[in-house]
Amino acid sequence: MRHVANDRSVTSVQHVLTKERLLGTERRWRRFGEPTPAGVSLTADGTPDYGIFGPGSEVWEVLLHPATIVFHNSIQSFMQTIYKPIEAGIRDRDPISLKGREGTLTFFDSFERLQRNAGMHAPMWLGDTETAEKMAKHLRTIHRRVAGDIIDVGEPELGGYAATDSREVMWAALTEMHPMLRVYEAFAFREGKLPHRLPSEARDRFMGESARYVRLHGVPEDEIPTTMAQLAVLYEKYDDLFRHSSTMKLIPETGEDFEKVMGKAMIKNFHITQIRAILPLMIQAIIFNLPMAGVLSGKARRALGLGRARAGLAVLSSKAVLPIVWLMQQPPIERQFMRLMWGPDGVMLIESARRLHRDAMAAQSS
């Protein structure tokens, strides 16, 4: 899930950004030593431990496509801010928001926040069972302090939030998995064809497998959807937590817009070397925002506050950017994004999983 707190306290400003610091080392993403890839270790019965998904799964088919590797972090972050309790946690407790209020936030801080988010998911999706469970436990631990009494100052009746409550944990996981499917269907060039929607049975298979990931985080079984129809019912049930609100970004204590506060701090702390972080930050969090809205559902676009005209423009833009999207998923460019956003361990896990998945799919087809 998009974690809204980390292990480090707010620190002083580091204005100068080197290329080495931008890329980071394994330490930026690693929490329990080197992760073990799926298929390397053995289960109690001596068979390979493929983790929670494994080769031949619909989730790996979607996740391991270059389009998903490049764009998943963007659409996940975009979708998760639509769910109000997650946005509230970022507003109130996330280190980049706190740095913004202190006036110490830099463009690199915001970029690194996105960067760690991608790479810290790879061990759960592509590691063996022990690796996945350790990372899930770590995320639960750091989320314990992410809680507040007010989700939205404009709608006090919504109450408060707590990132470790089953409702928030469930939606954090679902708003990682469902956008993954949406961006794959919208942007993945495959089978010699333009991007296209999966058959309904494959979409249900993806959701059924995704339930394993939701379950990993301790969500009660009776709430976990296993089909797309069940997911749609769940969206309806929690509709009040996805509706657009003009007051959602206001800090309860001060009434300030937390994104504007962060923006002022980043501009104040600008250094010419920060340009190294600004371009990838723009690609991941700003430039593709309109096409990303077009990739999401009509209901999600309404939750973003888009009117009919702008929503239509978003859908058109998601088609218009396809030539650029195709270019970005070609091997040389994809590899740059993979290393930058998923980290060295993530690259290793992705490459290992792709080999396993390729072999499994070849065996199925033969």
UniProtKB/TrEMBL annotation:
Pfam families: MPAB_Lcp_cat
Domain ER-bound oxygenase mpaB/mpaB'/Rubber oxygenase catalytic: 103-310
Gene Ontology molecular function, alphabetical: oxidoreductase activity
UniProt-listed InterPro entries: MPAB/Lcp_cat_dom
Record protein name field: Uncharacterized protein DUF2236
Species whose genome carries this gene: Williamsia limnetica
